[in-house]
Amino acid sequence: MSTTERRVRQKAETRQRILDAARLIARDKDWNAVTIRSIADAIEYTAPIVYEHFENKEDVLHSIVRQGHEEIKAAFDSVLAQPMDANEKLVQLSMVQWNFATSQPEVFRLMHNPERMAQQREQMRDEMHEARCRMNSLFSELGVREQLVPEAIFNWFCLITGYINLITNVKPDEAERHLKALNDPAMAALFKDTTSLYERAIRRFLHNLSSL
């Protein structure tokens, strides 16, 4: 490996360490706790070194959001390339969102911040248009009438984000204790396997689309 190649690799590794540190700070506290100084302290670098890689905190957050979208898009593309029917593809696309959100809840919340989503619409217009076309095609394959496809996609998105926001904002063990205190063991039992609960809800929703 040449000296130039080594420097490029080291720069990329340092950049990724900065992004990873920001995510960990946000997970332990929140995004307000993420500053250039707190990142520098976490990786035992000086603030000027962080500034060599990012202009400011907003630049860091933008990079994290971009990585999140790239990760989800790669997973989506993998699902869409599989020899499955439209129903199963939509189930698996739903699980991609769930798996990402439950493994990286702080990044998911950052990506779905209303103000940041408005910025993303401008920055990712082409990618979002492509994704929408793919969703239209899948829901049409399920037999949803053309004029109702937008509503079906909106309902699907609301179901996904509703479940995810509930589970990632309320820790399952805390919810279970609260429901037990209310003497509702059946409801409390649902929090023992939220992934299966979520998948069943998605499958029921898609099954019922045939009535639209």
Polypeptide structure, described:
This protein folds into two domains: 1-54, Homeodomain-like (Arc Repressor Mutant, subunit A), CATH 1.10.10; 64-210, Orthogonal Bundle (Tetracycline Repressor, domain 2). The relative contact order is 0.08. The chain is an all-alpha fold and 212 residues long. It has helices at residues 3-28, 36-42, 47-53, 57-80, 86-103, 105-111, 114-123, 125-141, 149-169, 172-181, 185-190, 194-208. The N and C termini lie far apart (60 Å). The radius of gyration is 20 Å and the shape is globular. The protein is 79% helix and 0% strand. The mean pLDDT is 88. Residues 35-54 bind DNA. This is TetR family transcriptional regulator. Keywords: DNA-binding. Residues 12-72 form the HTH tetR-type domain. Pfam families: TetR_N.
Q: What's the gist of this structure?
A:
Residues 35-54 bind DNA. The protein is an all-alpha fold and 212 residues long.
Write the layout of secondary structure elements.
Blueprint lengths: L2 H26 L7 H7 L4 H7 L3 H24 L5 H18 L1 H7 L2 H10 L1 H17 L7 H21 L2 H10 L3 H6 L3 H15 L4
In total, the number of strands is: 0
Outline: globular
Low-confidence stretches: none
> What count of structural domains?
2
Helical content class:
over 70%
Mean pLDDT: 88
CATH topology of the largest domain: Tetracycline Repressor, domain 2
Which structural category fits the helices and strands? mainly alpha
Q: Using only CA atoms, what is the Rg?
A: 20 Å
Distance between the termini: 60 Å
Number of helices: 12
User: Approximately how much beta-strand content do the residues carry?
Assistant: under 5%
Query: What is the correct CATH architecture of the largest domain?
Result: Orthogonal Bundle
The major sheet is characterized as:
none
Element-level helix/strand string: HHHHHHHHHHHH
Q: Please write the CATH class name of the largest domain.
A: Mainly Alpha
GO molecular function: DNA binding
Domain HTH tetR-type: 12-72
InterPro entries: Homeodomain-like_sf, HTH-type_Tx_Regulator, HTH_TetR
Protein name: TetR family transcriptional regulator
